[in-house]
Amino acid sequence: MKIISIVLTAMLFSICSMAQPEQKIIVKVNQPTAAIQPTMWGVFFEDINLAADGGIYAELVKNRSFEFFKPLMGWKILKPDTTTGVLIINQSETNPANPRYARISIAESEQSFGISNEGFRGMGIKTGMTYHFSVLARQSAGSALKVRIELVSSAGKIIGSGNLSPEVKDWKKYEVNFTANATDPKAKLNIWFEGKGALDMDMISLFPDDTWKNRPGGLRADLVQLLADLKPGFLRFPGGCIVEGRDLENRYQWKKTIGNVEDRHLIVNRWNTEFKHRQTPDYFQTFGLGFFEYFQLAEDIDAEPLPILSCGMACQFNTAEVVPMDQLDPYIQDALDLVEFANGTADSKWGKVRVQMGHPAPFNLKMIGIGNEQWGTQYIERYTVFAKAIKAKYPEIKIVSGTGPSPEGKDFDYASKELKKLNAEIVDEHYYANPEWFLKNASRYDNYDRNSYKIFAGEYAAQSINTCNPENQNNWKCALAEAAFMTGLERNAEVVNLCSYAPLMAHVEGWQWKPDLIWFDNLKSFGTDNYYVQKMFSNNKGTQVLSMLKENKPLTGQDGLFASGTFDQNSGEIILKLVNAGDKAQTANVVLDGAKKLAPKGKITVLKSDDLERVNSIEQPTLVSPVEQEFIVKGKTIHQELAPYSFTVIRIKQVK
Ligand code: AHR
Fold this sequence. Notes:
The chain is α+β, with helices and mostly antiparallel strands. The protein has three domains: about 1-35 and about 545-655, Immunoglobulin-like (Sandwich), CATH 2.60.40; about 45-60 and about 215-540, Alpha-Beta Barrel (TIM Barrel); about 75-210, Galactose-binding domain-like (Jelly Rolls, Sandwich).
């Protein structure tokens, strides 16, 4: 693949040197038009498609604390007998956050009894890897049940095992580590009990050793690496509609997602039964990935944290419940306390919690989002009160508001008008539309008001069929259209300050919504065509926008060509992005007007496919992926052949 494309590119360069340019593209190298915010390209994380539980949160046991609606969902009883059994006990009066546990009873000592956990569509187990099993347990009086833990392959072979002998009558955490001797994406965990008596068990957990930064109970390293490779400017979390909840009761409440994992109050995931075509009744939020971990993740990947909070409105596509205005205070208090949790000192109430969780330094929160995808007068009313309270206490915190699910229409126009009147700072716009919309809207921000709020292009993805269609594909046609649109976002970085594709992640067997940027199964993961588009923009951001015009106009689709230019003050490089959305090759003749002396070699990265339907997959993860190489810079005019359906990034260094 690579060799072929290097040969091809070399051929193209030689053709280019003979081509006679007609209309030139002029880049004004020494006249930057606007600064590009470091936050320009970021990521939007939502626990949809098993992105958190069953995904990036590396826990392998599903329903580890028996809190799903059906307490034994995900579990099977092995060798049931009238003298053995599992009893689910609910102690909600004394432990409302984690009320249930399982009592395992064996009346006769010879009985063999066990329970088995299926994992999230199986458990991904790797040979040679150490696994950490843990459980909260207590023996009943006179009981001495022993526990044997077995990892069992899909073929029924034991591929790892360990033993525990819980001794005491009080709850205690017991741990055992063992190494797996085979790889299997679909293993399961069997837990056998021997002896006579009764043993209480809760928080039955299994983690691989190779989590991100080897943190116990941490995140899947391959998935975090894919995020880190994007070099995102921000991490928006935790959604998405799960912020709002299907009803207010099930909204995301950050305070219930911090502290000891066993004290985090599980709730149903809003995507659980959202779509008839993709029912996922076993989808819950354990909050093992909670707000502390989100802040930590943002820090790890060098992204600004951008938490989005409920504004007292449940998902308007579902119950659309709203909290009365005179009962909004607890919601606002949550926002104020969150700033304290992230930034407060050890002697503040919530700063102290962060310190106790192991992060003495502040997380340096600078932005907060109020409401996810709300619309109507109810939103504006609530946003107004939130904004006033946050600004009164934390004037330095930037507030993100939103215009609802559609980037045009009555609700959008209303929200936009009202938010302008309220001097909103950053406004989130969402675009789920067909590829043609994205091509057409490459000029969307060329005439946006420069003196009003900044844009957060917070959720975008070209839909190959239509929104929420289960047949949507992450194909090259969509990715290319997004690249074209993104040249418009970049050209208008003066107004557009943050951008993120959505949704971010999906399990190949556990998804609800397509398309998604990153796909994974229990062992592997890959970036889609769209991922590589995002990566090429984000990794080639630059610090200033350069004017890049053909016949005095921005390139917004003339002859199928879209383009934007930036300059990176840190590296001294001119960065050009060119999208040829047409089916014919064409030459871009780019004049670097005002350029100083240029380095002899530049770098060119091309992402292309002659087949617009082409998609990456678990089996072929890099079918559409960038190919990078050096080229000889022959002067201040670049003649670059652009392949049909291609996205090209050129970097040329100015030497002083
Ligand atoms: O990205 C999927 C969903 O799309 C988000 O949860 C929501 O904000 C939007 O409707």
